[in-house]
Amino acid sequence: MQIGIIGAAMAGLAAADQLVGGGHQVTLFDKGRGPGGRLSTRRIDDGPWHFDHGAPWFVARDEHFIAAMMDWEQRGVVARWPEAQGHHWVGVPGMNALIRHLVEGHDVRFGVQITSLLRSGDGWWLHDGAQAYGPYDAVVLAMPAEQSAVLAGMHDFDMARAAASVSSAPVWTGLYAFERAVDAPDVVAAHGGIDLALRNGAKPGRGGSETWVVHATSSWSSQHLELDRDAVAGLLLAEFSGLVGGPLPEPVFMQAHRWRFACPYEGQAAAESCLWNPQIQLGACGDWLGGSGVETAWLSGRALAAKMLDGPMLEDWRGRA
Predict the structure, then answer these.
(1) How far apart are CA 109 and CA 28, in angstroms?
(2) Contact status, residue 163 vs residue 170, Cβ threshold 8 Å
(3) What is the DSSP-derived secondary structure letter of residue 104?
(4) Among 18, 31, 85, 312, which has the minimal tally of Cβ within 10 Å of its Cβ?
(5) Whether the model pTM is above 0.70
């Protein structure tokens, strides 16, 4: 069967791996310019710096995710980061290395933002405002809750309502390169408007440049959500100075990135790990289902694929709509 997945980050790719392994043809669509999602790495064209400006790391607790992590470690795309003081892993040489690895072998259309779905007699059609893609026998929404609610709204009220009940916390992230070392530990947490600051250059495979990624708290980010990024970069730099308790070296580069849908607010994630409607063959997965984080997204995608492969949902319904 032909399956369209909207979202080519961890949840969507985990589902795609399982579905392709089950003998089906999968096409993924992602509005981003390249692999990453919230496991993104930004490289600065006019400088030697790069920054993991999405998730700072990921943690493995589930036995299946641990097994996958062991495999990825052997392939050289992830490594442990002991300095984070826990069972933390990072992509190597950037956080997006893992997504780049998972994308290999899949049919992924980057730079395509699907804005609506149409279900007709010959299958599902995905529209980006200028072009229609399809037909597909089944569609998977592997996106933040707010975006999933919009696309599911015309087709499955219960799925749309579940997604609409989850709100995502925004996060402003500051990216800084300094001319000399900042006098601080590699990981510093929770002070004022800052949730986490970390020396990005200290991660495995980064080359040791004095680069820092500073994540604001969701409350601080909400208060400053609509400011321009230059203003936010300056404000976060001042917060960072307060965090380390003294003046900072002169920054040679600074920039801010806004994650409008960074992660579900604590306690708001839907209880189920995935959602699947076999009657219309529409599903949803992501870390807004069952919790939050990279591991949760991966497990959600696999759980949805298992439901799709286990039932009669992939029988040919075209012509019956």
Answers:
(1) 6
(2) no
(3) T
(4) 312
(5) yes
